[in-house]
Design a protein that fits this description.
Its cofactor is FAD. The chain is α/β, with parallel strands linked by helices. It contains 10 helices and 8 strands. The chain is 47% helix and 14% strand. The structure holds flavin-adenine dinucleotide (FAD).
Length: 279
């Protein structure tokens, strides 16, 4: 049987400035759209802090005739506010979502109870039926707040059973963690696709800082190599492209259903990695 074409998608965050938004819509999106992704997605700031800008960016992308998935969480909002946002997305012809519990921005954490992703999926299904193709988050190296490896898989299954269609993983550089995770999910009865989230290496210092908090590990050999390059950013860039290309090649050759690139709103190095894969 012919191998199915892998699903490719690209993630953005909503830019903070009008110039950033214009660049994203007028330069970055046409360049990445030329790679024929299945959809773009746009993150939702912790606690709902980017409600308007996420809605603005997804609406513009959709108005250009491109498939797009806003990320969504309850944040500090009630059912009315989230319901109104969903209604707007339906009106604007958006039919994909990435449903999350999300996190609270630092300093805002104590007073608001976060709503788990499975409850958001239930809410979306109740309100809008089958309108949305819903993705949820998965963690091959396990969510940092999880009680155990098995409990995180249990809760992933719960949100898929609540009506999500598929999952996208947190980024990882240990390919074994992903395939072991897929095996464990299958053993737990999960039969929906789990797409690999991939973070191209751009700003290594930021990546290392972020990884400490989000439950993704950068292997020691990668850190050592980058450290050795010091201020030679060109070598870091080339090494990053090589490592991430190899990771994606292994994933696709070994049966990953597709790749979701965390683009950081940049065409490169995602475009080069995509070209290396010969997709
Ligand atoms: P959940 O699935 O609700 O899980 C959170 C934790 O609680 C886990 O430890 C889980 O094991 C546990 N748990 C789950 N359900 C239950 C339950 N019913 N009872 C008890 N425990 C439970 N963050 C943003 O702020 N904005 C974004 O746009 C964004 N996009 C993301 C996209 C992807 C593909 C990924 C992988 C992550 C994204 N994140 C985003 C980060 C995410 O919001 C955080 O990792 C957050 O801490 C968890 O969200 P979740 O939806 O995975 O939570």
């Amino acid at each position: 049987m012919a191998k199915q074409k892998p699903r490719i998608s690209f993630e953005y965050f909503p830019p903070k400035t009008a110039e950033g938004k214009s660049k994203l819509l007028e330069e970055t999106t046409p360049a990445l759209q030329a790679l024929n992704p299945e959809f773009f997605s746009v993150t939702y700031g912790a606690g709902g802090t980017t409600r308007d800008s996420t809605r603005g960016v997804v609406s513009s992308i959709r108005a250009a005739g491109i498939d797009v998935a806003p990320h969504l969480s309850f944040g500090g909002d009630d059912e009315n506010a989230v319901g109104e946002l969903l209604d707007t997305y339906v009106e604007r012809g958006i039919n994909r979502l990435v449903a999350l519990r999300g996190d609270m921005p630092s300093g805002m954490g104590a007073s608001t109870q976060l709503v788990y992703a499975n409850e958001l999926v239930e809410f979306v299904r109740k309100r809008t039926g089958d309108h949305f193709q819903i993705e949820v988050a998965a963690y091959p190296e396990i969510h940092p707040e999880s009680e155990s490896y098995d409990s995180d898989i249990h809760f992933l299954k719960q949100k898929l059973d609540a009506g999500a269609n598929s999952a996208i993983t947190q980024y990882f550089y240990n390919v074994e963690s992903y395939f072991y995770f897929l095996d464990q999910c299958a053993a737990a009865g999960i039969d929906k696709p789990i797409y690999a989230g991939i973070m191209p290496i751009t700003n290594f210092a930021n990546l290392a800082r972020f990884s400490r908090n989000c439950g993704a590990e950068i292997p020691r050999w990668i850190c050592q190599r980058v450290e050795g390059y010091g201020k030679d950013t060109d070598s870091v860039r080339k090494f990053g492209i090589e490592v991430v290309t190899q990771l994606c090649q292994t994933l696709l050759e070994s049966g990953a259903p597709g790749i979701h690139f965390y683009t950081m709103n940049q065409v490169e190095p995602t475009r080069t990695i995509h070209a290396n894969l010969g997709l």
